Amino acid sequence: MLTLPSFNSIRRPRRAKQSQDNSPPNQSNSSTTSPKDTEKPRSTHIEHSKATLKRATRTRKIFSLLTSFFFLISVVFLVLVEIGNTHIRPVLRNTYFLKLDLSHIIPRSVPNSVLINSIARTLGLHDFYQVGLWNFCEGYTNSGVTSCGKPRTLYWFNPVEILLNELLAGATIALPEEIISVLNIVKTASHYMFALFLLGICLSSFSIILMPFSIYSRWASLPTAILSFLAALATTAATIIATVMFIIFRNVFTTAPEVNINAELGIQMFAFMWIASGFGILAWLVQMGMCCCCASRRDVKKGKKRGSSKAYAGNEHQGLERSASRRSKKGE
Predict the structure, then answer these.
(1) What's the pLDDT tens digit per position in 300-311?
(2) Which of 125, 122, 152 is CA-nearest to residue 136?
């Protein structure tokens, strides 16, 4: 019997290919191109224990507490500036801006100067006067400070008024023209100095309480940094005004040829002022650095920063122990 050769149709695979191309996409392909997959992944919220968060942000906590400690020191010295020269006490009576010594107000070149100086004392003048932020104190060389004036708000040192009130009725004393001409400037500068010292101590006191809140977020460091800047600015500005004003006062009194008045600055008061200003500036610089440095607790929770690596050392060690135990169980 004759066997015929078999032939395969060429159109059959073509039709199968066309039917495959025209068929609707399957469910698996449609799921891969779903709009949910095209969305950007959201930031993950990592759960950490309280101990891990505290350990990871310990550096930021140290700097926050250091800032509060700096402001605490500033407030302590500002309080000493505020209450200085208000009472006859060992520390307060030695805390003054300026001390005027009038015990030898008449120069020795004048005939009978010793007798005239003693007469001036009998007329009501004290040997020295000390100027503070709220009042002035007076006393004698032999007995020290004898009395202090009543504290007054926005007090300013007016030597003409003080001396005229101290002298007996009808007695006068001629002061140099340079001293009288700068009294208006001294009054304005003293008012600004008084207000800035009070503002500085109030803002510094608030800063002590608010600085630790910068642990939780770096955004919280911005308002606290602004507050610390204002506190440091007010304290430093008041210190500069006081320094310049009383140095000018000292130079005017000591260089006046008409009278022999010895003026000296209060070293203790000036030291208290500049220490308070220095610690206020240090606190502001530390708080400014915390705006961009040191991981906050919010950063650690959001996964933006890890913080201190020591916080995760215990977790990594526990993970290694678990993986080793699993391997040993599989080997058995």
Answers:
(1) 555 555 444 555
(2) 152
Q: What's the pLDDT score for residue 100?
A: 87
Query: How much is the average pLDDT of 58-64?
Result: 76
Is the whole model's pTM more than 0.90, yes or no? no
Better-scored residue on pLDDT, 130 or 58: 130
H-type alpha helices, the chain: 11-22, 27-32, 35-38, 50-56, 58-83, 113-122, 159-166, 177-181, 183-210, 221-255, 267-289, 297-302, 313-331
Count of CB atoms situated within 10 Å of the CB of 187: 13
Question: If DSSP codes are grouped into helix, strand and coil, which group holds residue 95?
Answer: coil
pLDDT of residue 261: 78
Strand partners, 140: 144
3-state SS assignment for residue 267: helix
**Token representation of residue 218:** 């770096």
Chain center to CA of 169? 50
| End-to-end Cα, the chain, rounded Å | 71
